[in-house]
Structure formats: C-alpha cells, structure tokens
Amino acid sequence: MPDVQALVNDFLIKLKKRKIEGSQATARQTAELLRSVISQQRVPYTNQAGALIDAVRAVGEQLIAANPVELAVGNIVRRILHIIREEDLSLTTAAIAGLNLSAASDGDDDDDGERDEHTVLSAAAVAASARNALRPPSLQTLLEDMPESVDIPHTSSSGGDSEGKSKSADKSSRTRRLKHDVIEAVNELIQDINTCHEQIAEQAVEHIHQNLKITLLELETIESILCVIMGEVILTLGSSKTVLEFLYAAKEKKRSFRVFVAEGAPRYQGHLLAKELVTRGLHTTLITDSAVFAIISRVNMVIVGAHAVMANGGVIVPVGLNMVALAAQKHAVPFVVLAGSHKLCPLYPHNPEVLLNELRSPSELLDFGEFSDCLDFGSGIGSPLLHVVNPAFDYVPPKLVSLFITDTGGHNPSYMYRLIADYYSADDLVSFPKNIQIFTMKKVCYLKRKSCYLSCGVSLNKWKWNLLVARMTFLTISMPSQLFLVFLCSLGVTMVRSDG
C-alpha cells in the first residue's frame, strides 16, 4: 500500500495549486484520503477513538491550511470526526447493554430459573440520547434512531481463564470493529457525495411546475401568450453541474421551460452551461450579467448552485450572484439554492477561521500587454497607477434566499442550522480568538476582554457557558467595545470596570 504521508503531501500540493476544480471533487478526494489515514492508523487497546480522532485532526489541519477558501475540506474533516465519535459511542453502549443483559441472565439463573423481561435499548438509541447535548434531537434524527433489537451473545462463566481470554478477545475484536465501522461509514459518505447530483435532481419535478391550461380568450398580451407556449422562465448564473442535472431532470419529466443564463464574467462559465443545456435539448438564452435586472421581472424562479452554505443560512456563491439575489428580492422572484450535504458548513461567516473570498489573477479582466503603461510604477510612490481586484465569490445573506434544496429535501434558511447540527459534533466547532480568555472558578465564570472583567454569577452548565461564549466570540469580531458591553448587559451579565 502507498505511504499515507506521501498521499497527504501530494494532496496538499494539489490544494495549494488549486488543481482540483469543484467542491464535489474536493470533498470526495478528501474523504478518500482520510479513509486511507484511518485504515493504516495503529490504534491502542485503550482510547481507540481518541487515536483515530488525533490522526484525522492532524491531517485535517494541514488540508484546511492548504486551501482555506475551499470549505468542503473542513466540512469532510469534521464529518469524519463526528463519524468516529458516533461509532465509538455505539460500540460502547452495545458493550454496556451486553454486560447488563448477561448480569440479568445470571441473576435469573440463581433465582430458580425465574426470568423477568428486560427491555434493552439498542446501541443506536442510547447513542442518539447521548448525542450532542448542545441541541435537541431533530425529527430526522428521531426517525433514524428508532430502537432496534440487539442480538448479544450470552457469555458463560466457566472459569477465570476463560473469562480472561474472552475479555482479551473482546478487546481485539472491538478494535477491529471500530475501524471497520468507521471505514464503512466513510464509504457511505463517499457514496453520498458521488450521488448528490442525482438525489437533488430527483426533486426537480416538485419545484418546476407543469404548464397551466389557459384558453386563448384569457390571454391579453403577447407576453402572456409566450409564457404559456414556453412555460416557466428560470434564471441562473455561471456554471454548476448540480443546476445542469436539476434542469435536465425536469425536462425528462416533460416540464416545459426556458432558461436564461447570465454569462458570469470574467470567467464566463455561463457560456459552458448554456452550451451544455442546448446540447441536452433545453431552450436557452444567454445574457450579460448587467442585463439581469432588466429581465428579472419576466423570470419565475432563480436557481443557482453554491460554493458553501453557512450555519446561519447564508450562502457563499460565485461572484455576481448577490446582485441577482437583490434583483430577485426586488421583484419577489424565488431565489432557490441547490447544494449537496458536503457543502453544509457548521461555521458562521463571521468566524475568524472562515475565509470567505480569494482574489483571482488580474489577467481574467485585462490584457497586460494593452495596460502595461498603467501598471508601471511611474507615480513615484512605489505602487502602480492601476489596481485590479478580481474576487471569486459573493456572500448572499439568508434573508435573500427563499429555499435550499439538498440531497435530503427542501429546507428553509432558518432550518439549516438544525440540519447542519446532525452532521457535526460540537467539539469540532468552538474555537476562541486570542483576545478572549476564559477563567473558571468554582461555579462563577469570568470572561476577560481587553480591560473589562465580566462576571456571571449564575450557575451555568459547562456546555451552556461554552455556547454563550461562542455567541460572544462571533459577535466580537466586528462589534465595537461599547456595543459589545451593551450586548452583555442584555444577557444579564454583571460588569466590573478594571484598569489592570
């Protein structure tokens, strides 16, 4: 088998040089790399999950640092860390349930063979009850974790030697089983990433409606006649494979519609999408980005892809889509975002570790040969006369999004944080900036920020205080000190001024 470190180094070079195009390919290759790391990782008899978590986290930190803008890398790393914790918790609860069952059977043998019926919860049900105390269980989690019967073999107590051998055998089998279960879960994750386009496309008929049967007497204008003949009008921008498969699936279900594609300057990815749509037999109109506001009143729905979906329901999208979202809101046109589950990011856009944008080469905007005179240092101040800014992404706030369509169904922006919470563990989300320090003394928590000491005299659980501090951390990134103190007062926090 190839060396894991060589695989990691090769993948790091690809991330740094931006050789992997698309979040889906990046997510799939990240999961495959971490699967290799897990399969070749040696685990001790004790704290096996901890050893796997440390190995995945060490590699994940390198991958995230190589390309911070590609949030799909961090999403997959956190997903696999969550999988390790879930599988370890399931095995632990199954082992405890087996011990309780065997102890109950031994007690019944001593009482003249009288046995009582004991209800033993399955490992999945116990794991679900202990899963992430930061949130209540969602409906999807409750449905997936229904109690099932667990077949646990009864151990016979024939002697000390047999018991010792069985315990050692159980340890070794549990070690192999943990890695096996984790790898199987990672394989399922890779399969979900590969089939996310198909699962999203299956929902196209639910959102692109059938034509209405209207008589010619009810049509008053030429525009209304064209609307009935051509069906719905859908607007998109740039190129997205998810959008392509979604629209093609609607066409296969005999939906009649026309697609307006904004070209997506300066990379003009919309040209590629328009060509693919025409090849598959869809009526397509290519427009410039500046013409979006002019034709948005004739559009029935805006359907776009996403680079990442944040925990607050905001979306990181290709540059230019924020303008489209504002135009859609102005004319009350639904703005629908298609995104696979690997694009659901548990972080917020104001997290310090989130890098929302990157600048591309100025050569996409202008020719250096024609503008060479403007790029020299003739001003005498050590900087060129002309600066070129070419951002790659836009941020669309949740208030501009009408609906998210993922491989698990359609969801409102306000529900995304609950959906994201099912895929990640809270231990992998909370991180504190350097200017915030946490001190705990008995049941009184202190938070120090600059020269202000803030004390909360209420007895708080550890997870509640961590959640409160996490919210404070998010708000202090761009919040002035005075406004930050007003926010703490609203939470009932007592403040004491100190000059130390």
Automatic annotation (TrEMBL):
Residues 149-177 are annotated as: Disordered. Pfam families: IF-2B. Keywords: Cytoplasm, Initiation factor, Membrane, Protein biosynthesis, Transmembrane, Transmembrane helix. The keyword Nuclease does not apply. The keyword Cytoplasm applies. Residues 162-173 have a biased composition (Basic and acidic residues). GO terms for cellular component: cytosol; eukaryotic translation initiation factor 2B complex. One of its GO terms (molecular function) is translation initiation factor activity. It is found in: Cytoplasm, Cytosol. InterPro entries: eIF2B_beta_subunit (IPR051855), IF-2B-related (IPR000649), IF_2B-like_C (IPR042529), NagB/RpiA_transferase-like (IPR037171). SUPFAM superfamilies: NagB/RpiA/CoA transferase-like. Belongs to the eIF-2B alpha/beta/delta subunits family. This is Translation initiation factor eIF2B subunit beta. It comes from Salix brachista. The lineage of its organism: Eukaryota, Viridiplantae, Streptophyta, Embryophyta, Tracheophyta.
